[in-house]
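Work Package 4 report. The design task specified in the project plan requires that, given a folded chain encoded as C-alpha cells, an amino acid be chosen for each position. We show below one input record used in the internal validation round.
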C-alpha cells in the first residue's frame, strides 16, 4: 500500500515527538542536554506538522488512514487545531531550554522536555483520532501530562494544591461525563467511529448535556472556569502558553466535532452555547480587570476570550440548525468563532511567553512591583504591546478581524437576543483594552525601580519565540484571507456544501472581506479592507512621529511633594489603583460571583466528597513519593483510601461504581475490567519493591511504563468492540 505524502509527513512528525520524549529519559543525567535535545526534536516535529497542514489545506482533501495502527480522520477542523498546535509547539519548545534555567533548583528538570512533548503529541492525537475510544484515551493522556506541567514546582504547597484541584475537577467534570457519553454512544449506535456516526439521524438527548459538560469544563467557560485562574499561572510560562493557547482549544474542537459532525444541529443547544459564551466573556474580563498578578490576569483573560469563541460558535450552530437560507450565515458565524480561536492561541501564547520573560529576569509576577522594563527589555516590550493590542481588538491586528467578524455575525442576525450578546461583547472589548493598558504600563512603562533596575533582555531563543507569535498577529491581521478558506470550509463541510456555494454571500481577497446575509440586499454588503486600514494607520503614525520629533521638547524634571523631590516608588500609580472607582461600582457583581462560587463548592463537596477525598489522599501520597527513597512508602494508606472511596461514592452516587455496558455478549463491568486489575498491579508492585533502595526516577519510569502498557492493552481489547 502506497502511503500519501502528507500522511508520511505526519508520521515523521509523530516519530520526532516520540524521539523528543525518549531523549529526555535517555539524557536524564544532564538536565541541560536533555532539555536542549528534547526541545529541538519537538520543534522540528512541529515544523513537520505545520508542513503537513499546509499540504492538506492546499489540496483541499480529507484524510482517512491508519497511522501506527491508529485510525485517523483529518478534515478542515482537524487542520485548524493542528496549525495551532504546530505554531505554539514550535514557539514554546524554542523558548524552553533557556527559560527552564529559572527552575534549575528542581532535580527533575531533565524530565520537562519529555512531558512537554507528550502534552503536545497527546493533543495532536486527540484531534486526529477517528475512533471515540482512542479520543478519550488520548484525552486522558493530555489531562495527565497537563497535570504534571501545572505541578512542576512540586516544592510549592500552593502549586500542589492547585494541581489537586485541577486533577479532581477534570476527572469529575470532564473525563467522567465524556466516558459516560462514549458508553452511551456505543450503547445506542453500536459504533464509535466518527465517520460512521455522521450518517446517524437520531440522537440521545443526554449526549448534548454530557458533551457540553465534558468539553465546557476543559474549556474553562463559566461556571466551570474556577480551576483555570489558579492552574495556568501555577505552570511554567511556556506550559501556560500551551494550556491557554492550545489545550482549552482542543475542548472547543471536541464540542464542534460532536455538535456539528456527529449529532444533528440543535437550535436550543446553540442558544445555550452563545449564552454561556456571553456570560463567560463578561465574567472573565471583569475579573481580569482587578488582578495585579500578571499571569493571573492573563489566565482570567483566557476565560474571557473563550467566551468570544463560544459566542461565535453558538451563533453559528443556531443558524446552521435553521436550514436554508440561514445556514449560510451560520457558516460565517462559525468561521468567526474559529478565527478567534486561532488568533487567541497566537496573542495569548505571546503574552504568556512575555510574562515568562519578565519572571525570568525580575523573579516576580506582581505588577505593583514592576516598572520601566521597556528600557531594559525593549524586544519583550514590543512583543507584549503587539499581543496586548491584538487581544484588545485594535486594528490592524488579528484580534480586530476575528472580533469584527463576531460582531457582524451578531449585529446582522436580525435576532434581538443575539444582537444583545454582540453588544455585550463589544462593551467588554473596551474593558479588555483597559486591562492591558494596566498590564503594559505597570510592567514596561514609567521608570526603573529597585526590583527592575538590574533586568536585561532575555536570551535570543526566548526573544525569537515571543516575537514570532507577535509577528503572526500582525500577518493574520493584515492578510486574514490566508486562513479564511479553512475556517469557512469547516462549517460548509458540516452541512455538505463546498466553498463555491458560498460565493453569493461571502467573498475574500487580500484587499477586502465582504459578507452579505441571505436576508440583506447585495447592494449593502458588510465589508472591510484590512490592508487599506493598515496602510492608513501606518501613514498617520509616520506623520505623527515625524511631527512630534520636530517639536522642541521642553525640559523635564522629577516629581515633587511640598518642595521635596519625591521618589518614583511613592508617585507611581500602582496596578491595584488603576480602576478602583469602576471596580467599586461593580462590586455587587464580584460579591455575587463569590457567593455563587461558594455555593457551587458546597454542592460539589456534597455530591463528590468521597471521590474528591480519596483523590486528595492519593495525590498527597504521590507528592510524598517524590521525596521518599522507597516506593513502598504509604501504600497501605493508598489502599485504604481506595476502599473508603468505593464505600463513600457507592453511597453518594450508587450507580457509578458498578457502571456496566453490554459488549457483544454478557455484562462486562467497567470497574472489574479496567480499574481493579490496575489497582492490583500497583499493590503487588509496591509489595515487591518494599525495602529496595533504588533511585526514585527508576520507580517512576517503570511504574509509568507498566501502567501505560496495561492501559494500552485494555484499550486495544476494547477497540475490538468499538467498531
Amino acid at each position: 500500500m502506497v502511503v500519501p505524502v502528507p500522511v508520511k509527513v505526519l508520521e515523521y512528525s509523530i516519530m520526532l515527538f516520540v524521539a523528543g520524549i525518549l531523549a529526555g529519559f535517555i539524557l536524564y543525567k544532564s538536565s541541560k542536554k536533555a532539555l536542549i535535545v528534547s526541545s529541538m526534536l519537538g520543534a522540528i516535529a512541529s515544523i513537520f506538522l505545520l508542513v503537513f497542514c499546509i499540504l492538506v489545506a492546499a489540496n483541499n482533501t480529507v484524510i482517512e488512514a491508519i497511522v501506527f495502527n491508529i485510525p485517523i480522520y483529518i478534515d478542515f477542523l482537524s487542520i485548524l487545531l493542528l496549525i495551532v498546535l504546530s505554531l505554539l509547539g514550535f514557539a514554546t519548545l524554542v523558548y524552553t531550554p533557556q527559560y527552564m534555567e529559572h527552575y534549575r533548583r528542581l532535580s527533575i528538570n531533565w524530565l520537562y522536555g519529555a512531558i512537554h512533548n507528550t502534552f503536545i503529541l497527546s493533543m495532536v492525537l486527540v484531534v486526529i483520532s477517528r475512533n471515540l475510544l482512542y479520543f478519550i484515551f488520548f484525552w486522558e493522556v493530555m489531562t495527565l501530562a497537563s497535570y504534571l506541567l501545572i505541578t512542576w514546582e512540586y516544592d510549592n504547597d500552593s502549586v500542589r494544591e492547585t494541581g489537586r484541584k485541577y486533577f479532581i475537577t477534570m476527572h469529575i467534570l470532564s473525563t467522567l461525563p465524556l466516558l459516560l457519553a462514549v458508553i452511551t454512544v456505543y450503547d445506542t449506535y453500536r459504533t464509535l467511529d466518527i465517520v460512521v456516526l455522521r450518517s446517524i439521524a437520531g440522537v440521545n438527548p443526554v449526549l448534548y448535556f454530557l458533551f457540553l459538560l465534558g468539553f465546557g469544563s476543559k474549556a474553562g467557560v463559566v461556571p466551570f472556569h474556577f480551576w483555570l485562574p489558579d492552574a495556568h499561572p501555577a505552570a511554567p510560562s511556556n506550559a501556560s502558553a500551551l494550556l491557554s493557547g492550545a489545550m482549552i482549544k482542543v475542548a472547543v474542537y471536541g464540542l464542534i466535532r460532536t455538535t456539528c459532525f456527529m449529532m444533528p444541529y440543535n437550535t436550543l443547544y446553540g442558544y445555550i452555547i452563545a449564552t454561556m459564551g456571553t456570560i463567560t466573556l463578561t465574567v472573565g474580563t471583569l475579573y481580569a480587570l482587578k488582578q495585579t498578578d500578571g499571569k493571573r490576569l492573563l489566565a482570567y483573560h483566557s476565560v474571557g476570550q473563550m467566551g468570544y469563541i463560544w459566542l461565535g460558535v453558538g451563533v453559528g450552530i443556531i443558524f446552521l440548525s435553521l436550514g436554508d437560507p440561514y445556514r449560510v450565515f451560520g457558516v460565517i458565524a462559525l468561521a468567526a468563532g474559529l478565527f478567534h480561536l486561532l488568533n487567541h492561541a497566537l496573542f495569548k501564547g505571546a503574552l504568556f511567553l512575555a510574562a515568562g520573560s519578565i519572571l525570568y529576569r525580575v523573579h516576580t509576577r506582581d505588577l505593583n512591583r514592576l516598572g520601566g522594563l521597556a528600557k531594559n527589555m525593549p524586544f519583550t516590550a514590543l512583543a507584549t504591546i503587539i499581543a496586548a493590542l491584538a487581544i484588545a481588538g485594535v486594528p490592524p491586528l488579528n484580534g480586530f478581524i476575528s472580533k469584527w467578524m463576531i460582531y457582524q455575525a451578531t449585529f446582522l442576525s436580525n435576532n434581538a437576543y443575539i444582537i444583545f450578546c454582540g453588544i455585550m461583547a463589544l462593551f467588554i472589548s473596551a474593558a479588555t483594552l483597559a486591562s492591558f493598558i494596566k498590564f503594559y504600563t505597570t510592567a514596561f512603562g514609567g521608570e526603573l525601580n529597585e526590583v527592575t533596575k538590574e533586568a536585561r533582555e532575555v536570551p535570543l531563543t526566548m526573544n525569537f519565540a515571543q516575537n514570532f507569535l507577535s509577528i503572526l498577529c500582525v500577518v493574520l491581521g493584515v492578510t486574514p484571507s490566508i486562513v479564511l478558506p479553512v475556517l469557512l470550509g469547516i462549517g460548509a463541510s458540516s452541512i455538505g456544501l463546498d466553498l463555491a456555494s458560498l460565493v453569493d454571500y461571502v467573498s475574500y481577497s487580500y484587499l477586502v472581506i465582504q459578507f452579505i446575509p441571505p436576508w440583506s440586499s447585495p447592494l449593502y454588503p458588510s465589508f472591510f479592507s484590512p490592508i487599506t486600514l493598515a496602510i492608513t494607520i501606518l501613514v498617520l503614525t509616520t506623520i505623527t512621529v515625524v511631527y512630534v520629533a520636530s517639536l522642541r521638547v521642553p525640559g523635564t524634571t522629577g516629581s515633587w511633594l511640598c518642595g521635596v523631590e519625591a521618589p518614583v516608588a511613592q508617585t507611581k500609580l500602582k496596578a491595584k489603583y488603576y480602576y478602583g472607582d469602576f471596580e467599586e461600582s461593580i462590586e455587587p457583581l464580584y460579591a455575587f460571583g463569590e457567593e455563587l462560587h461558594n455555593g457551587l463548592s458546597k454542592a460539589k463537596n456534597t455530591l463528590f466528597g468521597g471521590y474528591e477525598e480519596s483523590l486528595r489522599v492519593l495525590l498527597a501520597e504521590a507528592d510524598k513519593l517524590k521525596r521518599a527513597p522507597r516506593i513502598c512508602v504509604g501504600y497501605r494508606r493508598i489502599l485504604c483510601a481506595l476502599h473508603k472511596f468505593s464505600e463513600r461514592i457507592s453511597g453518594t452516587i450508587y450507580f457509578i461504581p458498578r457502571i456496566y455496558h453490554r459488549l457483544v455478549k454478557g455484562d462486562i463491568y467497567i470497574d472489574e475490567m479496567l480499574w481493579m486489575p490496575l489497582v492490583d498491579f500497583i499493590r503487588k508492585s509496591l509489595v515487591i519493591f518494599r525495602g529496595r533502595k533504588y533511585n526514585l526516577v527508576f520507580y517512576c519510569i517503570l511504574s509509568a511504563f507498566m501502567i501505560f502498557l496495561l492501559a494500552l492493552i485494555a484499550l486495544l481489547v476494547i477497540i475490538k468492540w468499538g467498531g
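Residues 624-639, 645-699 have pLDDT under 50 and may be disordered. Validation will be extended to a larger panel in the next phase.
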